[in-house]
Amino acid sequence: MQGKHDLKQHEPHIARMYDYYLGGKDHYQVDAEAAEKVLEALPEVRVAAQANRGFIHRATRYLAGEAGVRQFLDIGTGIPTEPNLHQIAQEQAPDARVVYVDNDPIVLAHARALMVGTREGRTDYIQADATEPEAILAAAARTLDFSQPVGLSLIALLNFVPGAYEVTATLVDALAPGSYLAMTHLTADFDPEGVGATVKVYTERGLYCHPRDKAEIGRFFDGMELVEPGVVPIHRWRAPVEPPKTMDVKVPGYAAVARKP
Ligand SMILES: C[S@@+](CC[C@H](N)C(=O)[O-])C[C@H]1O[C@@H](n2cnc3c(N)ncnc32)[C@H](O)[C@@H]1O
Question: What is the rounded average pLDDT of the residues 95-105?
Fold first, then answer.
């Protein structure tokens, strides 16, 4: 299993493989090779990664705009891509505070890019592991006021995290009423064969990867109020134009946003 703070160039990392899918330059040969194996299993993984980024933009715009959220905790941030979550949030609300968290040293190496925000707002970066949510909450409290609503983003993260339900429950418990959880999660519902082969690529390389079906993903939101349109394929969540049906098999993940009452 991947260690918490090791930057190994001879083992693939989740963040660097994702960078490869997005056409970035922050990966090593070993990541490119593993990512190419995923591309054999899921030829549309690049479309899926882009759809995932699109959801981050729409959900953050909704949270900072319509929902009036001014504080954000984004765990599993990944290597920065433009625009990052704080840029979207602070475009809507310049005083928004954003805390980013990832366990990958390569994301830490880019943290400076994540911390250039507005003068009125604040951004911070925490190098931490999602399996230690209490430590994340304690460090995030330096920047965020947990007596006020927080938008918690767990985007394309939980399928990589053992004990994901417990982790999510600990984080949501710590949030004030009126807070939100925004999430995307890998599923085998649309392309069981392709996703099964993808899981094999990750797990054979020591990287935990666990897809869930729609009902299992819905369970992460127990006790919360799902925002319309509920748990839907990632590219369908408040899409500006109705996506073609053929997209569903290309984007093997669900997205949802819910409010803590
Ligand atoms: C697929 S990327 C998603 C990046 C970004 N959230 C997005 O959706 O564009 C998953 C990210 O989660 C991070 N990650 C995986 N397991 C983690 C853990 N246990 N703790 C913290 N971060 C983790 C990886 O390093 C990677 O940056």
Answer: 96
